[in-house]
Design brief:
The structure is a homodimer of 217-residue chains. The first copy, chain A, has 2 domains: 73 residues, Homeodomain-like (Arc Repressor Mutant, subunit A, Orthogonal Bundle); 141 residues, Tetracycline Repressor, domain 2, CATH 1.10.357. The first copy, chain A, contains 10 helices and no strands. Chain B binds a DNA duplex (30 and 30 nucleotides) through helix 1, helix 2 and helix 4. Chains A, B: Keywords: DNA-binding, Repressor, Transcription, Transcription regulation.
Chain lengths: 217, 217
DNA sequence: CTCTAAATATACTCGTCGGTAAATTAGGAT
DNA sequence: ATCCTAATTTACCGACGAGTATATTTAGAG
């Protein structure tokens, strides 16, 4: 009894870390599972589309039942949102990675395009491209718009930088960013993971096209 | 009996034209209404998305009930397909219009881009871009694929022609067509009909970008 | 004036699916 | 051993929406 008591009060210090370690493990576990749910959803959405995928489908692909899915995620909408966010994060990383580069604007833009293509061919790519405001509540829709806008602004500022340092011909930065993003986003519509063409090759061709243009030099 | 028989056989000549005129009128009427159904559907799909639009919605926008809609169209899927086809037809027209032109490949391509942008900003544009195989039966999906492929081939052959006549720098025609179509299709995602920018202006900027490229000359 | 066929409406079926309430199990802490 | 909490399941609800069976109206044909 006394021994137990002692173990109970003193150990608070000693077992504190152990406790936290184990709680931490549990949290990590939960996060890993949550990620699995999101990734499975992304894959399913990409294969069959958002509306043609039921939560029962996703659950059964995880060998689990629907309420389990709800244990990790608020609702279907949030699932889509998370997929979306994951996709956008990949692209944002690509843009941020070029933030402190000393290369010319055009070179940095090319690097961003390569990462963009990589991201768009992932399972999250489809979600990112297809996540339409129409399927999201006003709140989520606003968040999505904000994230998309960040990407857009990132592209535009790279273009501006390129124009400023002379590596890019003066142009309408807005339309240029739209055309670029459009060509890249559209990859999600035609790309199949078993495609012969790797994302990096696609990116290379796109960079060449956008840099040199169609007209012979 | 005999009289009726006679009236039935002889009048075929006299009332034939009248009959056909009126039947013709009825057919035209039916077609006009059917078109109205399809256009209303296209607008609704564009505004709220395919899955978020019920046939009751479409019917009530036409001040009519659901079975009436079914009187003009097989089912929801076909409605989407018709919208899709209407959109693609606009683009195909643009391509065919350049078939017999004597201009250079690059000039003809530019003309096609302009028409393409026009089409994509229409109500049918959205449907064309969003009509995913996922929402269509295998049969319809095949048809859609075939139509899309026609557009793709049209673009590619224009590019080839341009390369052949020296107006376009030798390039990967497949990737170039994909990039072009992507940039154009993506317009449907961001364009709002109340946009300041007219389709023709967008097209102009795109043409300039794709022709000259980003790199200064 | 009647007959017929097309056009439209009423009122329903039925499956699907998002979401949940209430039990049950597992595993770690004491 | 016991207790507590997180994880998971079973069994359900309610809504929505595609599609239809069946009347009813309308209008042209004879």
């Amino acid at each position: 009894m006394a021994g137990r008591q002692a173990r109970k009060s003193i150990p608070q210090r000693a077992s504190g870390p152990a406790l936290w370690a184990s709680v931490g493990a549990r949290v990590r576990d939960r996060e890993r599972k949550r990620d699995a749910v999101i990734m499975t959803a992304a894959r399913a959405f990409r294969e069959r589309g958002y509306h043609n995928t039921s939560l029962d489908d996703i659950a059964s692909e995880l060998n689990v039942t629907k309420p389990t899915v709800y244990h990790y995620v608020e609702n279907k909408e949030q699932l889509l949102f998370e997929c979306f966010r994951a996709g956008l994060a990949l692209i944002m990383n690509g843009i941020e990675a070029q933030q402190e580069s000393t290369a010319t604007g055009r070179e940095r833009l090319a690097a961003v395009i390569a990462r963009y293509a990589e991201a768009i061919t992932s399972d999250f790519g489809w979600c990112m491209v297809q996540a339409e405001n129409q399927d999201l509540s006003p709140t989520m829709s606003r968040k999505v718009k904000a994230l998309k806008s960040e990407i857009d602004q990132g592209l535009r500022s790279l273009i501006r930088a390129g124009v400023a340092d002379g590596s890019i011909r003066p142009c309408d930065e807005k339309m240029t960013a739209f055309a670029l993003a459009g060509a890249l986003n559209w990859i999600a519509h035609w790309y199949r993971s078993d495609d012969q063409l790797a994302a990096s090759e696609i990116a290379q061709r796109f960079i060449e096209l956008f840099e040199l243009g169609l007209q012979p030099r």
